[in-house]
Amino acid sequence: MSTQEGKEDDALLPFFPQPERGETVYSLISRYHLLSGHPSFRCSMRLISDRVGCQPAAEFPSFLGSLADKTGLPLGYLINEMTDVHYYQPFLAEDQYLSLIKALEAGQTEYSQTWLGSRANRIPLGRALQFCPECYEKDVEQLGFPVWHIEHQLPGTVSCVIHRLILHRINKNRKKACLPCFIAENLRKASSPNQDTISNLIADSFKNHDLRFDHQRLLNVYRHRLFSQGLLTTNGRIRQSKLRALLYSQLGDLQFSEIYRRLRELIVNKRYPDCLFYNPHSFHHPIKHLVLISALYKNWSSFVDLYRFGEIEIQQEEISRNTFPVQLSDQKENALRALKQGKSLRKAAEETGLSVRTVGVIAAKHNIPISLRPKKIYKNLERTIWRKLLIGASARVIAKSYELSTGAVELILSKHSYLVPLRARIRFFETRKKYRESLIIIRRKHPELRRTDIRKLNDAMYSWLFKHDKTWLYSHLPVSVPRRDRYKGDR
Predict the structure, then answer these.
(1) Least confident span in 21-25, 150-154, 344-348, 476-480
(2) Over 90: is that where the pLDDT of 379 sits?
């Protein structure tokens, strides 16, 4: 045996269990620890990974490469068979998916949730592990031990698609090994048809991941069903209020889940599902698409069949201009030409397919005189509004004080592009001042509070300062309680 081979053999753990089909990485590591006899879970993790503070129960663990080296398990198997990477695959472009795989191979998973859209889309990260009581009994009978199943951990899954039971939840704990446990019959709750529909659809999308969606084709498939259900206007615009009402009712018996509660908030705030259609270049978390698919098509197979083989036929006059957009630069050139010919904003907008607001911005940037309805803004008033915009005043407040529309004030703002970053900076300093003062007041009124208590008292303040003003925050927080003393008061 060569020296190199001897080193590789030495690096392998002397014992490690074999993974079961559909088992998660955390489940496998937990079984290893419980069988190893190590005094603590930390000891077991140190043998697997040299990284400090790694999250064994994370959706994408950062130690998969090290785990492959120490156990002899193929790295590709750990990624493709023991994580939910295929949950995201259909909704990622090929280069994005390859970047995700490379990040998992290299252990660079710190920002994966950021660019996968969980944070930008305000989707809560999984704080708990889920299991089915019936699956627990089946695993114990057939395998001799329980496991955590990947399909139960997929974002948005709330019920077991086999046994039609609501999944039980156990909070994640990176300091302990944990496996599913026995649940008494009287504590098991049957799932509703709606809960089974969304869970089945998520499971089917995960299993049948050999598909990568073309975004424009995907939107057209959505519009096809919206059209058949009367959710498009005669000129092809989406009836957003009715679609929101449909989705809101769809999530009614799902709101015990953090993810669906958040989606209902986005619906109320009119940010979903509008974002899927009018912000096409951003990556939207798969759950936003899956909920819409569930509401429109009920099951994955009928949706995929239409996407792959269906002929999307909607009359041309009934398709929104957003469905088959012409090049925006050409539209703007045509609008500018029409304005120079003396045509009105509305006439130019009608001819080019742009909104009146966009044509107004084009006119302002090229100093083409236009008549603003219902009130003309004269030069002296425009100068006054410019001054207020310069010092950071809200466009809405300015519009109200001069009895103008907010769009008219924003039109003036668009003529002075240098104001946008300046106003953002002003808002930053104003927000920082507000939150700093809030923290100082809290510390003055409640000097006995710990850092955790302060965060619970005003989480928005704490999170903003932590992200944008961390040095100042830490210099004004109470002294950190030593780790060994943190939970004495809770015992």
Answers:
(1) 344-348
(2) no
How many angstroms separate the CA atoms of 9 and 388, rounded?
71
The two three-digit tokens of residue 445, written as one number: 């009124």
DSSP 484: G
Picking from 124, 122, 154, 155, the residue whose alpha carbon sits closest to that of residue 284 is 122
Q: Where are the domains of the chain?
A: 1-208, 215-318, 328-421, 426-485
Report whether 439 contacts 460 (CB < 8 A). no
The DSSP output letter for 323 is: T
Distance from C-alpha of 198 to C-alpha of 219, rounded to nearest angstrom: 20
Q: Residue 226 corresponds to which amino acid? A: L
In terms of Cα–Cα distance, which of 51, 197, 52, 57 is closest to 130? 57
Tokens found for residue 316: 């041309």
Beta carbons of 129 and 57 less than 8 angstroms apart: yes
Terminal Cα distance for the chain, rounded:
55
Exposed e or buried b per residue across 269-291, where buried means at least 16 C-beta atoms within 10 angstroms of its C-beta: eeebbbebbeeeeebbbbbbbbb
DSSP string of 50-86, one letter each residue: --TT--TTSSS-TTHHHHHHHH---HHHHHHHHS-HH
Q: Please, what is the average pLDDT of the chain?
A: 84
Indicate whether this model's pTM tops 0.70.
Answer: no
Residue 120 pLDDT more than 80? no
Asked if residue 158 lies in contact with residue 167, where contact means CB atoms within 8 angstroms, the answer is yes
Q: Which two tokens stand for residue 463?
A: 């999170």
Which of 144, 206, 193 lies closest to 17 in space, CA to CA? 144
Helices (H), 372-418: 379-390, 395-401, 406-415
Under a CB-based contact definition with an 8 Å cutoff, are residues 45 and 51 in contact?
no
3-class SS of residue 450: coil
The two structure tokens encoding residue 154: 């997929």
Give the CA distances from residue 353 to residues 233, 321, 326, 359, 368, in Å, rounded to whole numbers and listed in that order: 16, 7, 9, 10, 19
Per the CB < 8 A criterion, the answer to whether 157 and 291 are in contact is: no
Bridge partners (DSSP) of residue 168 are: 131
Name the β-bridge partners of 166: 159
How far, in Å, are 55, 160, 166, 241 from residue 224 at the CA level? Answer: 43, 31, 33, 18
- Greatest Cα pair distance in the chain: 89
Share of the chain above pLDDT 90, in %: 43
d(CA 295, CA 290): 9
